[in-house]
Structure formats: structure tokens, C-alpha cells
Amino acid sequence: MLFSSTTFLFAFLPIVLITYYIVPRITRNLVLFIFSLVFYAWGEPVYIVLMIASTIVAYITGLLADKQRKNAGRAGPLAAMLFAVVWNIGLLLFFKYTDFFIGAVNGVFGTSVSKLGLALPIGISFYSFQTLSYVIDVYRGNVKSQKNFLNLATYVALFPQLIAGPIVRYIDVAEQLEKRRETLDNFAQGVWRFSIGMGKKVILANNIGELFDTISNTSQSELSVAASWLGIIAYTFQIYFDFSGYSDMAIGLGKMFGFDFLENFNYPYISNSITDFWRRWHISLSSWFRDYVYIPLGGNRRGKLRQCVNIMIVWFLTGFWHGANWNFMLWGVYFGVILLCEKLFLGKALGKLPVFFRHLYALFFIVIGWGIFAYEDFDALTQNFKNMFGIGAIPLINKQTVFWLAQYAVTIVILVIASTPLPKKLCMKLRDTLPQLCGCVLQPLAAVCLLFISTAYLAGSSFNPFLYFRF
Amino acid sequence: MRKELKNYIMIICFLLFIFGFAVAGVLSEDREFSDNENRYLQQMPEFSWKNLKDGEFTSDIESYMSDQIFMKDQLVSLKTVTDRALLKNYQNGVYFGKDGYYIQDYQENRELVKKNVELLNSFAEGLDNDVQVSFLLAPNAVSVLSDKLPAVNQTDDQLDTVRYVKSILSDRITLCCPYEELKQANEEGEQVYYRTDHHWTAAGAQTAFDALMTAMGESIPNTPYSKIGVSEFYGTLYSKAPYQGASADTVDLVYGLNNELTVTYVGGDNDKSLFVQGEHKDGNVITHRLYDDSWKDKKDKYATYLGGNFSLTEIDSEGESDENVLIIKDSYANAAMPYFCQKYKHVSMIDLRYYHMEDLTVSEYIEEKDIDKVIYLYNIDFLNSDNNFVWLE
């Protein structure tokens, strides 16, 4: 189920909220768990077995990986932790990457091994990483193992973050799973956050997504250089507002049930370097790779060369995590190389540039990155880049492009402003000067408007894709 | 306390919103059909384990929830309003033009135009030489009312298409494209196209008919007409971008004075889309009017003209000329029939979208009925998009 659907808004959520708040506190986790299973099974009735199996494995290996337990020994916890790694990575490899590797082998050796054709279990990339981080944290002694199966199962299945993150780590919510206080303050903040996320996803991302869709499906003969830039800029906005909107909704929903999830985005498009960008984009993913891959590999403590290798490994994996395709690998390696350059020499040079140019530099490479990310078909990818850089034998601009620009001009202006902290600052200022009017009238009004307009878009259009669903 | 209050307000607003829609959705009656969208709406699916396992049950529930959402038509309108506030004046292939006109976009498909015109050519060339063949090629609002289009648009020029058609059209066929005439009528204050529908109005059809008669070297019947308006018409283009601010059209039902008519829907007995009340005889349905009143209260009021489109319709009247005329046509012809019936005593209409595998091919029909004149009547958009011209044999 998607948050941005009428089924979620007007059936699932009301029922969960009522049930959650009328049952005794002690059964609230059970309510969340059961409804989360329904939420998951809605789109994947079969693979739910897989998720439960993963939870059981995490539960048992978690208990065994605890070095503090009686009779733990030395080898036991290590073996349990390694088993969890093998299980989770194995699951991911099998369900997500087998067909890709078969395809690659067939390509290289000219064999014709048939593909499995398995559908990707929804959210597998997210919950595998979550359960894995739990077991590793237990093994490292950073967090106690969870003795209560239901608490752990609730954590894994928790519907606000189940299918598209953020990758909530067990260590961050361990306490909240056992005792959390649902407060009015939290709930109200959650509503606000959820409404903003809904607006970002349904009004902004879907709107500009249509432009990218149109342009990427337009035949070569009707394109122009400007159009191919416009297309990829549209995608740049779409993926940010889509994904961060979804994270906002997840965080908001979490708050309604008394959870505090960490932030996943921090205005990535105002970055002044690519290093900066990756501190602001999909924070839960990059910090996961930092803590569970980069640092265990030695991070920056084993000399420059080793650090460079580590960075390349991490970014290759980050790219590959996004999907079993060459373009995602290329996308990861592309950022790995830029990050290395920044680390080695570019960073210093950039520091001397005026701020404006630093932003321009960062944005340029971010947008080019989305150009790699957006096209899974390699021919389409290269053709698009040829078009962008004027070697596609197409005009600089044409009537069609001017039309698209005119149609989306206002939307793009709004997207640009919404990508910066400006709206938030204005809200804060307003709240400081007119606290009563703002809190009691304007803010609730804005939330309801966003929800109403989003509902209108959901009712009125069939275009409601969700990009991160596939990953 | 103040903080508490603002939290209460926020939370109550939210709960009212989600529970409001949820409860209203349960209480309000489900609709079978949406006039506005012209399609059947999803009903509550029946549960079965198999449905559930296939994922069919859940996906049906999703469509049920969004199809039957409370105040759906108003919500769809709100979306259009928001899009317009973002200064988007194009939606689902339709421009929001000046003076409340919805105007359909036009993207030329030259290959298809070529193919269709060639089919028209070879059919005409295969006919006896004494059969006169004419072609009324109706321009659409996008060209005639081009001054009402948004300044920045992506439409192709229909006049290019007309020039192209002219350049490849067989000498056997007399072409009439009443672009100038319609433009002039519009400038003189006639409404020649509907604001909310893709068809021309009765006035537009009359202007075109007059132009066709002139091109064919015929006189224009000099008889007075009376008309009755059917108001509150929101047409097909409106449905593509419904909008509370749109103004309704009026469909004019035109009557030639002192003209007794007999309309025969050939094979109408078996046609489920024919609702017209009439006498059933030999598998045909016979009426004495050009209009089917059952459409007056429905959404598609343009279908009041002859009750829509059917494979073969024959109209006998007290028109001026004894000649037998066959009009091979799309729906634009329907609004022009009052004028044709004033001119010709025997008019047959064939719609190639439905005239498939009939007893007689079109050319056999022409022979059998001793047709004197064949008139192709198509609007440019149709010529540019339809694939049924192959049935012309």
C-alpha cells in the first residue's frame, strides 16, 4: 500500500489510529505489528512469509550474538552475527541480483542460462539492512538484544518505514519500542509533517514527474538540447520531492504513534560540494554504509590509499543497492570518483571559489548523476547525454520545448523555492511574530489545504508512481 | 495552554479530514457510472482467497476507493483549479482557451493521413464515372479558433494538413475545406464550435454545408429553419479537464420547415447502442425525426443528433433534389443532416467504424441503391487518427 492513496488515507489509517488508541497500552505493539502485516500483505501477500522469516532469523541470531549472555563463549556470537550477514546479503543477492548476474554471465560467456524472473519483494532492501544493523549492533555490544519477539517484529514490520525507509536503526528506536509516550505535541507535529510530505509527493513530485515522463517518451526527432536538460532537471526535482516527501510522511506517521525517526534529508540541493550532498541526501542510507561497511573496512585509519579503495567500495555498493542494473553501479562509481577527487585535491580548490560557483558546481554534478540514474536502458542513457551536450543532431530549442517551459514555469519556480530552507524559515518567522494566529489558524489551515489538494490529485489523475518502490 | 490548544486544533482538523472522508465514503451510495468521465466505476469487489492471492482483490479495493471517493467530481474539479493556478493551460490533450473554450490539441500523423487519403482516393477511382465524389474536410476548433488558443502551444497547423491532403487527393474528388467560411462566421459572432465539446455546432455545420454546396456547384436550399435549444451541455473536452468555472453549451436541434422525414436505422434491431424509440420492422428501426430525445437528459447531448453513430442510416425526406446521396462520415456529419435532408430526398449515411462485414460492401451498396453522389465528410482530427478507412471497399 502507498501512503499516497485514498485506501491508505481514508480506510487503513483511520482504522489503525482508532484501534491503536483504544486498546490498552500493553497491546499497542501487537496492533502495530498486525496492521503492518496487513499493510505489507496488501501488495505482497506471498512475500510476507519472507519478511517474517527474516524477522525470526534476526531474533534468534540477535539473541545468540549477544556476548553478555551466559555461556556465550567466543565463537558463538561471532557465528550468529556472520549467519545474519550471510542470510540478509544472501536474500538480497538472490531476490534482487540473481537475474542481473545471470544476464551478465550470459553476456560475457555467450551462454543462455534462463532467468528466474522473480518479482522483487517490496521493501527487501530496507528491512534486510535494518535487521542486519540490529544483529551487528548487538554483536558489537552497542545495544542489548531484544528478548521479546513481538517488539522486534514490530520494529521490522513497522509500516511507516517498512517499504521505503528511512532505514531506521534498531538502536535508535530500541527504547521507544518498549516504552514510548504518545503526546498531543508529537501527534500534532506528526500531522503537520505528514501533510507536508503528502503535498511534496502528490502535488509537486507527481506534477513534475509528468514532465519527465513526457520528455523521456518523446521521439528523438521532436527533442531539443534544452528539452533534454529540462527533462533531467524535472527528474532531479521529481526524485527529491518524491522520496523526501515519502520520508516526511514516514516520520510524521511515526510521530503519531509516538516514534521518533531520524531525519533522512537535509535540503540536498543547497549543497556546495558533492561531499556535502551525500551528507544531506538519503542520510539513513549513507550513514548505514559508513557504519557497517566503510568503518569496518578501516575507514581512513589505514592510510590514504586504503581510504580511497574503501570509498570506491562503499560508493559502488551504494549505487548497486539502488537496483540490479549497470546504470546504478555507474551512478555509484561516478559519485565515488567525484568524492575521491574532492577528498584529494578538488575540495581545496573549491574552497577558494565564490559560494555561488560552488553551488553551481555541486548542482551540475548532481543533475548529471540523475541523468545516469534515470535511465536503466543504456542506449537511452547515452542518447540523452548526447542530446544534453549537443551531439544528438537536434536543435538547441524548439516550439515544443518552449511549450513545456511555459506549462511548467510556475511549478519549477515553486520547486526551486521548496528545495531551499526558505519556506521553513518564513514559517518560523511567522510563528515568532504571530504565534497564536499561526498555530491555531494558519498552520492547521495549510495542513488541511495540502491534504485536500493532494486528495484532489489522487482522485483526479492516474499518474501516481512511486520511484523508490523498486529499490 | 496555548500550545495545547493549537495541538488540539491541528489534530482535530486532521481527524475530521480522514474520518470525514472515510465515513462519508461508507454512507454515500456507490455510483455505477460516471457521466462526467463516461465510464463504469469500480464496485465493491467480492472477496475470495484466490482474488486475494492474485493481488486482484486489493487492487480492486484501491480502484474502488478512488472511484467512489466522496465528492469525486468536485475533487477532480479542484485538481483542475490547482493546475490552472499553476498556470498550466493544457491538460489531457486539451487547452484552456480564451472565452471559456476548451480546445483539443492537434498533432499531425502524416503517415496515417497519407494512408487514409489514399484509401479514399482508390475507392473514388473505382467508382463509375457518373458518380460524383466530394469531400467535406472539416477543420477543428484548434485551427478555426486559433486566436483563442494560449499564445504558447504545441499544436501543429491543420492548414498544413489541408494543403497536404489537397496535394495528394485524386482528381476524381472535389475537395471543400470550409476553413475561411467558418472563421468568418465566427468573426461575425456565430458560435461555430462548442466550448466544451470537440464537435461543431449546428451553426458551424450549416456554414460548412453551404460551402460544400457551393463547391459542388449546387444551389443552397432557401428554406427557413426553426430550432430548439438543449441547454446544460458539458461535452467530451470538459470531461478531460472538468472545472467548476466552465460554462455550459447549448445543442440546437434544427428543423427544416414542412419536411416530413423517415429515418431508417438499418439493422437497428440488433444494435445495443441504439436507444431511439421507433417502429421495429424487418430488423430495422424507423423514426420520423433526426433527434433522439433520450439523450437530452444524459451527458453526451451531442448524441441527440440521430442518437449517435450507426453503421448505416437511411433518411427519406421531401428535399429539393431527387438524387440519391451517400455520405461516408464521422460524427461531424450528424449535426449537418438537417441541411442535407432539406436538399436531397434520399440520403444514406455510412459510418466505417461500424460498417464492417455487412451484406453489401460500400461499392455494392452504391450500385444497388443507384447512388448519384458520394460525399466524404470527415473532420481533420478524425482523418488524422482513425484506422477504419480500410473498410471502404
What would your notes on this structure say?
The complex is a heterodimer of chains A (471) and B (393). Chain A starts with 5 loop residues before the first helix and ends in an 11-residue tail after the last helix. Chain A has helices spanning 6-22, 28-43, 48-65, 75-109, 124-140, 149-157, 159-162, 170-178, 184-216, 225-256, 274-280, 283-294, 303-321, 326-352, 355-374, 378-388, 399-418, 422-433, 435-460. Chain A has 2 domains: 6-180, no CATH class; 186-470, no CATH class. The longest helix of chain A is centred in the N-terminal third of the chain and has 35 residues, at 75-109. Chain A is an all-alpha fold. Chain A is globular and about 70 Å long. The model of chain A has no long low-confidence stretch (mean pLDDT 90). With 393 residues, chain B is an alpha/beta fold. Chain B has 2 domains: 2-98, no CATH class; 107-391, no CATH class. Chains A and B meet through α1, α9, α17 and α19 of A and α1, α3 and α4 of B.
Task: Provide a concise account of the structure shown.
The complex is a heterodimer of chains A (471) and B (393). Chain A has helices spanning 6-22, 28-43, 48-65, 75-109, 124-140, 149-157, 159-162, 170-178, 184-216, 225-256, 274-280, 283-294, 303-321, 326-352, 355-374, 378-388, 399-418, 422-433, 435-460.
Compute the average pLDDT of chain A: 90
End-to-end separation of chain A in angstroms reads 15 Å
**Structural class from helices and strands of chain B?**
alpha/beta
* Largest β-sheet summary of chain A: none
Relative strand content of chain B: 15-25%
Unreliable spans of chain A: none
What is the count of structural domains of chain A?
2
Mean pLDDT of chain B: 91
Count of structural domains of chain B = 2
Could you give the order of strands across the largest sheet of chain B? 7-6-16-14-15-13-10-12-11
SS-based class of chain A = mainly alpha
What's the total helix number of chain B? 13
Question: What's the helix count of chain A?
Answer: 19
